[in-house]
Amino acid sequence: MKKYPVFLVTLYVACELIANITAGKMTTVGPLVAPAAIYIFTVSYTLLDLINRVLGKKEARRVVKGAFAANLLLASYMILAVKLPHPSSWQGQEAFVMTLGNTPRITLASLTAYYLSSNIDIIFYQLLKDKAAPWLRVLGSNSVSLLVDTVVFITLAFGGLMPLLPLIKGQYLIKLGTTVVTIPIIYLTHFLGFEEEGLPKSEETSCC
Asked: Cβ-count burial of 191 within 10 angstroms (0-12 exposed, 13-18 middle, 19+ buried)?
């Protein structure tokens, strides 16, 4: 019986949650400005490609749905945590709200962009499966899906508030650069004990 790669899936979901938590911190890369979450968020897309590679499209979509549910739970509970009453002696409410209190518009933009772009990533990786080397599949699928994520998120989150093109261009360039660095992750299949085509159909999977 083949073992289900629990560690890989857990790591992917963890990256998604960490990205949401760290999105409030802004960073700079030369003249470009982007949230601190952008790096680990991009890593999660290469991890999704790895999941797609070893488990296949159907299972990768299930993992995305699970991560989406986890993100939704995190966002909902952060909203609740901000609203909960606090003692007058606690002086951290303002900082807590600034760090974790995303507006409903930001939350909706983030969840929408994630779900759309992740499923697009799965589709494009599969389209390239028999036509390109693993590293090129990652670069190709991430290039498309991360562009979709960037355009959808920034448009929904900041449309009508500020110029969108500079934000889209800056964040997309950083994501592409990060993708290049993460390409070696796709070759971890050997260490995970899985073949390129995924789990054999003749064998069941276990959850541990």
From this structure: exposed
Structure tokens at 192: 């995970």
CATH code that applies to domain 2-84+92-206: 1.10.1760
Q: What is the pTM of this model?
A: 0.85
Helix, strand, coil % in the chain, rounded to nearest 5: 70, 5, 25
- Digit-coded pLDDT (tens) for 40-61: 999 999 999 999 988 889 999 9
Residue 104: which residues within 8 A CB-CB, separation 6 or more?
A: 79
Cα separation of 36 and 26, whole Å? 6
What are the residue ranges spanned by the domains of the chain?
2-84+92-206
